[in-house]
Amino acid sequence: MSESNKEAYVVSSTNDNITTIEFYHPQSNSLPGKILNQLAEEIHLADKNKKAAVIILKSAGEKAFCAGASFDELLQINSTEEGLAFFSGFAKVINAIRVSSKFVIARIQGKCVGGGVGLAAAADYSIALDTADIKLSELAVGIGPFVVGPAVERKMGTSAFSSLSIDATSWRNSQWAYSNGLFAELHSSIEKVDEAVLKLAKTLSQSNPEAMMELKRVFWKGTEHWDTLLSERAAISGRLILSDFSRKAIEKFKAK
Prior knowledge:
The protein is α/β, with parallel strands linked by helices. It has helices at about 35-50, 70-75, 80-100, 115-120, 150-155, 160-165, 175-180, 190-205, 210-220, 225-240, 245-255; strands at about 10-15, 20-25, 55-60, 105-110, 110-115, 125-130, 135, 185. β1 (about 10-15) and β2 (about 20-25) form a beta hairpin. The protein is globular, with a radius of gyration of 17 Å.
């Protein structure tokens, strides 16, 4: 079965103290609300799993890591309440990673757009293929990277975040993302990416869980208010997505 005919999914498995969470969507691993909610739930379950010491977050396929919000679902939003509910899905995933006591390693095999950049930024350690270009495209569709913004700004700094947000139609290459702190490592082949992800995960799986938990608290210090902040940001996106500008912009993107 070709990738385009497969059903979207989120699957989780635990082996050798490592929980791997994989998501897939036939539209370049885009993220509808259902997938977002499932991702958040699996991250919470992995955090509670005493057999897991570390979490790997990955997407399926050999192309895009994540194309961000599902355009189809964005066009179905008809009220501010529905908009808030949809964009809160991104908040749930970011906050699930934030409050987890376990490190989350992201395996980035391809391009990251919008919410995909947010996932890479929220992860504690992202290992990427050297063709994994990035783009925050939200402004181009009439909204902005409001929900993922705190995660991106925390990881990359205000200068890089504002550059990505303002120039919403241009790709930044993986070297730029690496130089600005989004990616911790770059590798020249997917085999080397997988090797690096597994090597780090195995090392962490044998490390002191309490020490890792305390380190994670240090790394995320100052984000304790994000439950409220990201909900407020989701409301902004949920309101803006109802504009005529956004509707027309998304239709143009879908027509390409």
